[in-house]
Amino acid sequence: MLFAKLPLYFQYLGFTIVYHILKGVTGVRLCASARDFSEKSFMRFVLVSIICFLLLPSCVKCEMVNRSKNEVNDTKNGDSIDIIDPIRLRAEEIAEGLDDRLLSAQVLISGIEGKGKLNDNVVALLTEFPAGGIMLFRYNLDDDNDSIRALLSQTSALVTGGAGIPPFIAVDHEGGTVNRFRRGTAGLPSAESYWELALTQDRQTALEKLESDSFRAGRELKDLGINLNFAPVAEYLNDANRIFLQSRSYGPDSLFTADAASAFISGMERAGVLCVIKHFPGSAGNDPHYSASVLGADKGALDNIVYPFTFLISRNRARAVMAAHTAVPALDTKIASLSQVVMKDWLRDEIGFNGILIADDFSMASAGGQTPESSAIMSVIAGADMVLVWPKDLRRTHSAFTAAIQDGRLSRERMRSAAKRIIYEKILLGLL
To answer: Which is the catalytic residue, given 213, 360, 361, 393?
Structure first.
């Protein structure tokens, strides 16, 4: 109604004019004395008053709606309105209650030794250092499903008992050649196969099959006790990464790669498994486990390279990202996993990522010559939330973190910020 769109002041003015018009019709004067009122005129006056009274709230409501719309528009223009997230508040409360020992444990994702059950050495380590996450490899998972469940149940109970916070149980399960299980368990085709299907049939068919396959595999992972998947690879195939990735990429088309990664994530997350998209900002050269990785592109080209990551983040499809040990000379002299410029300034501040940032394994050749514990601390200072460690390095890395907190090199605020993100996702997964 056009009248309702007018400011409230003019609505009141309009009603005053209407009233005076109706007064002329009824014969009721505004300052009439009691003897000027006939019984008929009085009833007309009461009727007009009731009509005005009934219409006034609707005008007030319209004004409130208009104000609300303006507030929403103001928010879109940068004037934010705080929205309370009870899950995030709970995560913050838990993180604030952690001491240095438990904060240092939460940022670590540790490998384990044992198949079917943990060996005594790892039992002792996890009792003393209840890591925030556990990562699994072929030597842990080359077993029947009941034995895998027993191993993961023991591990989760041990860590939860020591920290009061259950761990992420993680695996690399991209499909194709990256499969840690025996044949027949949580099988997935290679990423490349979906690009081939898109070419031979159509993209929608390929994406629907990918989401369905991912959901089926995700349910099997979840049934075994796994809740974190270091996948998918969100790098489209290009001259820089082709040698290393090969069939692990969803192909050379950045748009299809973004859609395919989104479909993979949708399937896994519907099954209750959190995905970690990788490897930001991209791979380059040969296998970074054995050689240096250098992405020699300018900022404009880099923005194109990371398009699938940007796409997923802008659509809230990326709850966790893995930072690569790739050197990016156009931005920093440090490798990405140690660079505040890459992880904070670019990934978080410019692209807008606010999930868990996990640094890749610092025992890789591309990570440089520092000790794993030194690199881990530098990575968290620069913006990473979690780092991968091997059992032999767990005690030393944990001790290095507590020492860095206590001598001020690593602030408790930075550690609590990381812990809040970690715990937030654990609550969403139903672990807490």
So the answer is: 360
- What does the DSSP assignment read for 262-291? HHHHHHHHHTT-EE-EEEES---SS-TTTS
What is the Cα–Cα distance from 110 to 391, expressed in whole angstroms? 6
User: Which helix (H) or strand (E) element contains residue 73?
Assistant: helix 39-76
Residue 53: count of CB within 10 angstroms of its CB: 9
Tokens 């004067």 sit at which residue? 29
What's the pTM value of the predicted model, to 2 decimals? 0.81
| Residue 33 vs residues 37, 39, 41, 171, 224: alpha-carbon distances, Å | 7, 13, 12, 89, 88
Rounded to whole angstroms, the Cα distance separating 232 from 37 reads 83
Evaluate whether 415 touches 405 at the Cβ level (below 8 Å).
yes
DSSP 8-state code for residue 214: H
Beta strand segments in 209-331, E: 228-229, 274-275, 277-280, 293-294, 320-323, 326-327
Per the prediction, the chain carries an average pLDDT of 86
Contact 355, 384 (CB under 8 A): no
Q: Yes or no: say if 294 and 284 are a contact pair by the CB < 8 Å rule.
A: yes
Selection from 282, 278, 277 nearest residue 265 by Cα: 277
Q: What is the pLDDT of residues 253-273, one digit of tens each?
A: 999 999 999 999 999 999 999
User: Which two structure tokens, joined as six digits, stand for 88?
Assistant: 């995030």
Domain boundaries, the chain: 3-76, 87-428
Q: Identify the active-site residue in 100, 143, 289, 345.
A: 289
Q: What does residue 170 show for φ and ψ, rounded to 5 degrees?
A: -115, 155
Whether 278 has a pLDDT exceeding 90, the answer reads yes
- 20-47 CB burial, b ≥16 within 10 A, e <16: eebbeebebeeeeeeeebeeebeebbee
367-423 pLDDT, tens digit each = 888 999 999 999 999 999 999 999 999 999 999 999 999 999 999 999 999 999 999
Amino acid at 415: M
Quote the strand ranges of 200-307, DSSP E: 228-229, 274-275, 277-280, 293-294
Active-site residue flag, 289: yes
CATH of 87-428, one of 3.30.70.890, 1.10.10.10, 3.20.20.300, 3.30.43.10: 3.20.20.300
